[in-house]
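Hi R.,

Here's the chain you asked about this morning:
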Amino acid sequence: MNIVYSYYVLDIIHRGHLLMMKNSKAIAGPDGRLVVGIVSDEAVIEKKGKPPVLSFSERLELAQAIEYVDLVVAQPTYSPFDNVRKIKPNILMESESHDDTQIEEGRRLMESLGGKVIVMPYFHGQSSTAIKAQIRGE
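And here is the predicted structure, written out as tokens:
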């Protein structure tokens, strides 16, 4: 059985998030599980300099409502590696929008666990940051 780990801030849910989750669930297969990590408010502030619009509890609840998701877990850091070490999925999903260094570190970690990283294409035009800017009229 495949266990796939994918992670999100999920501040504003958009089609890119849903496509990533749908594809991740398909990779898990019919008997597999998709575990979704939701990045904590503190980790988002540390990475992006400001808190998400939606609270952590709201973002968890929204993720739990998405049909492709089997389990939602808190991700205390922006990096998924602590959760990956605990959960030990055999597949870690990454986005090509993520830093190459982080993706390579993920590959090394997953290889040490007997798993692999799959890098999904970035869905251009599907960005919470861009949606927020559009709302603000920027």
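One quick note: The chain has one domain: 3-136.

Cheers,
M.
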